[in-house]
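Following up on my earlier message about 5-O-phosphono-beta-D-ribofuranosylamine. Here are the inputs again, as you asked, copied directly from the submission form:
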Amino acid sequence: MQSIVILISGSGSNMAAIVKAAQIQNWEQKYQAKITAVIANRPDAKGLSIAKAAGIETQVVDHKKYPDRTDFETELTKVIQIYQPSLIVLAGFMRILSGAFTQQFPEKIINIHPSLLPAFTGLHTHERALQMGCKFAGATVHWVIEELDAGSIIDQAMVPVLPGDTAEKLAARVLTQEHLLYPRVIAQILSHHNS
Ligand code: GRF
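Thanks, got it. Here's what our run produced:
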């Protein structure tokens, strides 16, 4: 069975979309894949209760409890290793991961970023897209490497920027697409692992 671990920091709406797709599409039977854990770096991450309600094991590795990134990542690695994942899915996980961490899991970590990479790495992507007068925005799923938001692109979804858009309106339009894009990409990776 392929093990999938999902890392979150907040509302977990992407994680919820992935969990739902896994149930509806029966990933256990179709891909011999199972979401074995949802791990949050914040004890108050709303997504934790969604995962629990779906019967998924949850763990918290609270970054505030560790003196530095190295100690936090050492503990995070320990917890992740319990589940021996073949795929680590960052879904709104708001900690930068060091090269020492990412190199432990080569070609196993993916992330979703709310812009059409390589444009707008980092934060405040929607505000910056509006400021620049972009006519299209979107989201990108990419492999995670040490450099932030810079790993190779697996797939993207695009939405139009509409007259009168605010960052909030644009974010909501992009998020709707993220919820379709991320499960689709994961299913592709799982089927590729199986072939
Ligand atoms: C999403 O927009 C994702 O692209 C970004 O953070 C947001 C997380 O939302 N990395 P959620 O926690 O999945 O609801």
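One observation from looking it over: The CA atoms of residues 66 and 72 lie 5 Å apart. Hope that helps, and feel free to reply on this thread.
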